[in-house]
Amino acid sequence: MEFKKYLTEQCAVVEQSLARYMLTEQGPLAIHIKAMRYSLFAGGKRIRPILALATAEALHAETKHLLPVACALECIHTYSLIHDDLPAMDNDDLRRGKPTSHVVFGEAEAILAGDGLLSFAFELLTHPDVQQGISPVNQIRMINLIAKAIGPEGMVGGQSLDLAAEGQTIPFEHLKLIHGCKTGALITASVQAGAIFGKATEEQFAALTRYGMQIGLAFQIVDDLLDVEGTTKDLGKTAGADVSRNKATYPAFFGVAETKVMAGEAVDAALTALEFFDAKAEPLRALARYIYERNN
Ligand code: GRG
């Protein structure tokens, strides 16, 4: 399999689906919808939706009716980025290579654009198209799992812990908790959503969950490394932001060389979790390697 081609094709599928399912800029809500669309269509690697689709594929499932769910995951991720960039949080003015939402639309509308995307995600998760590919019981299980991953015990909780830890000396265990909640939970949930949609057995679900957790960890470790070694141009966001905010990161704890080894170990563990899957899981394997090798 030519992975680069696969990634380009899957990215195009996600872009087309987002264009299909997202609200269009018209009527009295035009400004609000414009703000949501501005961040949603600003680029981005679309890793979370692609992971959900690739997981369902690994289970030999037809993914057409999973597309609204894939779009929902990207809406949720985009909301988190908009809010993370706000002056009250990281106060960043560059994201996905463009001025951040609050710079363009003002702080109040940026908050609402994030809120709008989060709420709209639940419209997509319950879209009639999804119901054609999943039983009601499994659909509720999938939505419950996503809600949990992005709420107080997941992404939002992780962000709260992250903000509270700024400028503090924290133990490594606490950094692991922050990363697991802030970044790992939504990545793992994206894999699990694909697994539920693909009717994974209990054993397969457990293996895919292990895979999701390990690539989530690798993703955040690499993100920490890119903050040190990447450029603002490649990243599309301000490089060196963690260092200048004195944030606890993997390189701050272990140095760059050791951190790279740890990212590689997480990817290896992710690949081991897939050992009983056949060739249909090749995109998932390649995605794990891509997360390690990416430069943005
Ligand atoms: C504000 C509720 C709330 C949560 C914020 C996701 C997050 C939590 C903060 C983003 C800060 C950050 C840079 C985290 C590191 C990992 C991460 C989520 C990076 C950005 O994701 P990518 O690389 O971005 O998938 P693209 O733009 O490619 O979609």
Key terms:
296 residues; single chain; 72% helix; globular; Farnesyl Diphosphate Synthase; mainly alpha; binds geranylgeranyl diphosphate
Q: Which helices and strands occur, and which strands form pairs?
A:
Blueprint: H1 3-21, H2 30-40, H3 47-58, H4 67-85, E1 94-95, E2 98-99, H5 101-105, H6 107-125, H7 128-131, H8 136-150, H9 155-165, H10 172-197, H11 202-229, H12 232-235, H13 241-244, H14 250-273, H15 282-293
Bound molecules: geranylgeranyl diphosphate.
Describe this structure in words.
- With 296 residues, the chain is mainly α.
- The chain has a single domain (3-293), classed as Farnesyl Diphosphate Synthase.
- Helices cover 72% and strands 1% of the residues.
- The chain is built from 15 helices and two strands.
- The chain has helices at residues 3-21, 30-40, 47-58, 67-85, 101-105, 107-125, 128-131, 136-150, 155-165, 172-197, 202-229, 232-235, 241-244, 250-273, 282-293; strands at residues 94-95, 98-99.
- Strands 1-2 form a two-stranded antiparallel ribbon.
- α3 packs antiparallel against α4.
- The mean pLDDT is 95.
- Bound molecules: geranylgeranyl diphosphate (GRG).
- Geranylgeranyl diphosphate (GRG) binds next to α4, α9, α10 and α11.
Low-confidence stretches: none
| Element-level helix/strand string | HHHHEEHHHHHHHHHHH
Shape: globular
Sequence of strands across the biggest β-sheet: 1-2
What is the number of helices? 15
Bound compounds, each kind once, are: geranylgeranyl diphosphate
Strand content: under 5%
Quick synopsis:
This protein has 296 residues and is mainly α. It has helices spanning 3-21, 30-40, 47-58, 67-85, 101-105, 107-125, 128-131, 136-150, 155-165, 172-197, 202-229, 232-235, 241-244, 250-273, 282-293; strands spanning 94-95, 98-99.
